[in-house]
Amino acid sequence: xxxxxxxxxxxxxxxxxxxxxxxxxxxxxxxxxxxxxxxxxxxxxxxxxxxxxxxxxxxxxxxxxxxxxxxxxxxxxxxxxxxxxxxxxxxxxxxxxxxxxxxxxxxxxxx
Amino acid sequence: xxxxxxxxxxxxxxxxxxxxxxxxxxxxxxxxxxxxxxxxxxxxxxxxxxxxxxxxxxxxxxxxxxxxxxxxxxxxxxxxxxxxxxxxxxxxxxxxxxxxxxxxxxxxxxxxxxxxxxxx
Lengths: 111, 120
Fold this sequence. Notes:
The complex is a heterodimer. By secondary structure, chain A is an all-beta fold. Chain A has strands at residues 4-7, 10-14, 19-25, 32-38, 45-51, 56-59, 62-67, 72-77, 86-94, 98-101, 105-110. Chain A is built from no helices and 11 strands. Chain B is an all-beta fold. In chain B, the strands form 2 sheets. In chain B, strands 2, 4, 5, 6, 9, 10 and 11 form a 7-stranded mixed sheet that branches. A 4-stranded antiparallel sheet of chain B has the order 1-3-8-7, with no helix packed on it. In chain B, β7 (67-73) and β8 (76-81) form a beta hairpin. Chain B is globular, with a radius of gyration of 14 Å.
């Protein structure tokens, strides 16, 4: 089955800095890679996703890059703000659509 | 994006009682919903896949007789924790796949806000 590794587990940055979170996956057949943001006590919120026919996707301050050869994908957040503080999860599908989640990265943005 | 709701948002119950959690897709029909469990500072653990009109598919190690799932309509799935015990205390989250006509795919999932269950 799919195995998803996510690093780092904790990331602390100053407001305005960039943050990068990386995930690797094992199943070369995987073709959809979402990123979720989870605030304390709430459900995960889809913030960006990418499919295997695209190498990079950007949405304002958030971008995701995908390297299918190396089987890894990354979340990039630029100009971080305190409200970006949350736990971020990557996922890769196991089978046709059931996602396997990474362990999560706790992002802390210091004002 | 598509909206998924859960009710209740939190519940406290006595050991031995049963608790029902509802998951609704508010503005779309979801043929497939998923139930997850999350412990503090941990990732989401898939418990089961709920398909409308058919039996749920449970992940290995999840007791189907303890966690009853019913997906009776295209907008509602329920999870009933039967004979709850303190070790069942957790954060339960549902998600739903968006239909293709809403710009979704077989992959895109939207999550509910979660239900915090505390068993005394």
